[in-house]
Amino acid sequence: MTIKDRNMADRMDLPFVGLVSFAGQAACEDWNQLDGADVAILGVPIDTASSYRVGTRFGPRAIREASMFHSFGTDGVFDFEDETTYLSAEDVRIVDAGDSDVIYADTKRSLANATTAVRALLDAGTMPFILGGDHSITMATVAAYSDEQPIHIIHIDAHFDFIDERNGISWGHGSPMRRSSEMAHVSGITTLAPRNMASVSRKDYQAAKAYGTHVVPLRRLRDQGATASLAHLPSGQRVYVSIDIDAFDPSIAPGTATISHGGLSYYEGKDILREIAQRFHVVGADFVEVSPPYDPSGVTSLLAARLALDFLGAIYHGGQPGTRSDVGSGMGRL
Ligand SMILES: [Mn+2]
Q1: Which single residue of 28, 113, 114, 220 has CA 20 to 30 Å from 7?
Q2: Topology given in CATH for the domain delimited by 3-327
């Protein structure tokens, strides 16, 4: 029997069957051939900028593998809680664009490759959705928006990531917001869910405040909710969303470099992402710091995959103005 003779439509393609891609979506590693895709998933497997535990170079593959459990067909996913179907073929076309290249022992060139990759995805008119990698990758992915209209960064993290430099290293995973704050096209930063002693030094905290970072510590976020925590931003604001998995509680996200107790629950995170999707114009996002060697049960990768799909579903549901029409056609560019 040849391939032609087989009825491919009858295949079940269960989550453990077949090649791995993000949520089982089509793969396209030629970034010149992405036309028509709304979202391009890009892995950036760099972990050499981590100041403590490494392993996030295996993050993109682990999140892809975990996302297969949530793979969906053209009919999308029905959420009974709001009686809505998300991620249907009419709403959004997601393509897995593979990974940016990494040069071992050379973090700076690897980061430059990530910038080049994200620019290619933007030039193709897709919204880059990036899987890290340690958090240093965000200074590279945000840099790719330099010839676009200004962006505000919504940064969800246990830490401030505003370190200027340590021992001459200014591109570590504790510095992405500091480096982003220096970019002319970044109009501001909101940091949600920081907490605990030692998550920031007094000097770096003062620098973040001097820059104008809007900070909502985790316990205030929990008290007032997602809507009030983002009320300072105007509706339709162009935002890039950077999500460090260590924003979540180590009981549900143990597989990360620098854990911090008292973090977000799944529903708290989902509520924040839904608020962002409903009110703002999301032009890019990343999920960083998933470290599979510290995630023996795979629960951290599963959480990242689930939240990524929740977020994409909320952004593209019903063709929200400012997302599909704008980002997908590249009209958001200057
Ligand atoms: Mn971080």
Answers
A1: 28
A2: Arginase; Chain A (3.40.800)
pLDDT at 300: 98
Dihedral of CA atoms 173, 177, 182, 184 in degrees, nearest 10, equals 120
Q: Which two tokens stand for residue 204?
A: 């770096």
Q: What residues form the annotated binding site?
A: 135, 157, 159, 161, 244, 246
Binding-site residues for Mn(2+) sit at 135, 157, 159, 161, 244, 246
CA distances from 102 to 14, 105, 157, 216, 274 (A): 31, 9, 25, 34, 32
Global confidence as pTM: 0.93
Q: Please state, in angstroms and rounded to a whole number, the distance separating the CA atoms of residues 100 and 110.
A: 8
214-216 β-sheet, strand order:
94-99, 39-44, 127-132, 281-288, 238-244, 151-156, 186-192, 214-216
269 alpha carbon to ligand 1 midpoint, in Å? 15
Distance 329 CA to ligand 1 centre (A): 31
In terms of residues, how long is the chain? 334
CA distance 207 to 163: 9
CA of 6 to the centre of ligand 1 (A): 48
Q: What is the pLDDT of residues 176-201, one digit of tens each?
A: 999 999 999 999 999 999 999 878 89
pLDDT, tens only, 132-157: 999 999 999 999 999 999 999 999 99
Pairing of strands 186-192, 214-216: parallel
Find the 36 Cα to ligand 1 centroid distance in Å: 32
Q: Identify the bridge partners of residue 262 per DSSP, sorted by sequence position.
A: none
Q: Give the residue among 93, 94, 137 at the shortest CA–CA distance from 117.
A: 137
Give the CA count within 13 Å in the CB-facing half-sphere of 47. Answer: 22
What does the domain layout of the chain look like in residue ranges? 3-327
Structure token digits, residue 322: 């400012």
Ligand 1 mean position to 138 CA, how many Å? Answer: 9
One-letter amino acid of 244 = D
Q: 35 falls in which pLDDT band (50, 70, 90)?
A: confident
Find the 96 Cα to ligand 1 centroid distance in Å: 24
In angstroms, the CA 247 to CA 263 distance is 6
